[in-house]
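Everyone, study these two lines:
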Amino acid sequence: MPSADTVVSSAMARSRQSMLLAFAVGAMAAVLLASPAAAKSYNITKILAAHPEFSKFNAMLSKTRLASDINRRQTITVLALDNSAMAALDHYTLPTVRHILSLHVLVDYYGNKKLKQLSRGATASASMFQSTGTASGMSGYVNITSHKGGKVEFVSQDADDTVKPSRYVKSIKEIPYDISVLEINSVLSSSEAEAPVPPPAPVDLIELLSKKHCKSFAGLISGNADVFRTLNETKDNGLTLFCPVDAAVAAFMPKYKNLTAKAKTAILLYHGVPDYFSLQLLKSNNGMVSTLATTSEVKKDYSYDVQNDDEKVTLVTKVVTSTVTATVGDSEPLAVYAVSKFLKPKELFKVAQAPTPAPSKKGKKEAGDDDDSSDDEDSDDATTDKGDAAPAVYGRWATAAATAGAVLALLMG
C-alpha cells in the first residue's frame, strides 16, 4: 500500500499537470482573442435584396444613406417594412424619411428568441435616431412589449396615446449578436421624427475652411476646378470633409508639388467622404470608409479606416495616421473636421511597414538607410498592401502554439 507521502506527491503532480494544462489552454485563448476581429460579414442591402417584398424599404435605406450607417454598426436591429407599409412615407421629404427610418434601427440586438423572453415582458431600446444626437430627450427610444401568446409590439416613446403600436411579423435574418432584421407591420409613429426638416442653409465651403484651421487646404481646393465642383455638388447630399490644418499642408507641400495633375485631384478628393458623419457617430463607430477618390478612380480603392478610442478619432490610411483635432463645421448634411496630417493614400505612396525586431548592428544600419526614403517614395501599385495584416495574425498563432507546446513539454517531462 502506498505511503501517505507517495499519495500526496502523486496528487501534487496531477494538480501541477492540471494547472499547466489550464495555463496552456488559457494562454492560447488569450492570444487568439487578441487577434484582430474579422470584418463583419453582413450587408443590409444584400440581406434585403433576397426579399423583394422589402425592395422599397431597401432602396430608401440607400437613398437616405442609412444603409452605410447600419453596416458600420457592431450590434443592430433593423425593423423592416414591406412595400405596402412603405406607402405611408410617400408624402415626406427625403431628410424626414431618413429621420423616420432611423427610428426603425435599434442600436441593440433583438432576435426572435430575445423578443419572446423579455424581462418583465417589456423594455426600451435606443434607436439610431436617438444615438446620433438627432432626437431630443427620450423621443428616439422605442418601447418593446411582449404579450402572452407570443405577440410583440413596438411603439416610439413620443408616440401619441391614440397611435396603434406596430406589430412584430417575423424574423427575416439573424446573425447573433451582430445584426437582426425583423419585419413589423406598420411605420413607427413619432412626432419629432416626422417633423419637417428644413433645407440646409447655403454654405460657402471655401469661406468655411478659410475661417477655421484650413486656409491653406481651401486654397488647394479652389485652385482645382474638378475638386471644387465635386465637393460643391456633393455637400448638399451628404459630405464629410477632413481638412489638414495649415501646418500639415505646409509640411506636405514639397511632395504635393511633385505629384501629377491627376494624382493631385485624387489626393484632394481622398479627404472627402460622400456621407454625413456627426462627431458622435465618428466616436462610436470603427470601420473602412470610401471616399470621393474611390468613385473618381476606376479599379482603385482610395479608402481608409476610421478608428476611435474614447474621445479620440483617427484616420488610418496604411501610409499615415491622422487625428481629428477640431470641428470646423457640422450641420447635416455637411460636416468638416480639421485633421493633424495630410492624408496619404496607399495608391500614391509607399505603405508604412510594421516595426521589426532589432537586428544586428550591420542590420540596423541597413534598415536605417531604407527607412530614410520609405515614406517619400511614391507607389504606382495599389497592391502594395497585400498581406498587411497577415503577419500579425500568424504571429499570434505562432505565439499561442509555442506557449502551448512549451507547457505540454513540461507535462510530459
Observations:
- Residues 18-39, 362-404, 406-412 have pLDDT under 50 and may be disordered.
- The longest helix spans residues 4-33.
